[in-house]
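User: Sequence in, structure out. Go.
Assistant: Echoing your sequence, followed by the structure tokens.
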Amino acid sequence: MEEAAIREGAFAMPRTSPSYPAGPYRFTGREYLTIEYRTEAAKLRDLVPEPLTPLGETARFQFVRIADGTGFGVYHGAAQVIPVRLPGGEAGGYVHAMYLDAHAPIAGGRELWGFPQKLARPALAVERDTLVGRLDFGPLPVAVGSMGFKHRALPGGAAAAMLAEPGVLLKIIPHVDGTPRICELVRFTLTDVTVRGAWSSPATLQFMPHALAPVAELPVLELRGATHVIADVTLALGTVLHDYLEAEDGA
């Protein structure tokens, strides 16, 4: 294989049979259960990487069902997101933890953007009159959320604005000697957002301690609200917000 051909096709691993196609990626009928809650401010300060700063004392836990994702198919996810202030004053969400049940989106998410994804068993389903989100890591339950099904409709514009909020990831790729080759904050957005429906309802959220899925490190002190949103979105490719290795070289 010639060097030029290697470089031209070097968008994913493995080179001869990539785990996912080239982006951007369109998702149709993506379904979110998002529960916002108050947690310990000191824990947030410990977990949010500089130069980001936490916005208040809140965190969000999401259960997601992906029914139709370009190149990724059907899968489920769960994520813990911390509202933050970006350099320059923009508000966004720092993705602290994420769990998926399929290899292709785990590989793509980690390699391209730096999503902190691990293999687990998230789920989101309607059980009679209740929308239920679950996250199991191995045989053990880690998180359970519940919400009344479609109690109060929300304006589509408000839901679209929530989905369009920028996200931030801490991307780390090691060198062959174990030192960091890439260590940076990546900014990403969801674009071309079409909201199919959005609702709010009474909700609950519980975490169970787990050594390798430590979402309970941000305990639920008070529920602040919950939303159920179904939307079509495009996950755009990201941009580098802050490069820790360049900052170190310039110090």
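User: And one key feature?
Assistant: The chain has a mean pLDDT of 95.
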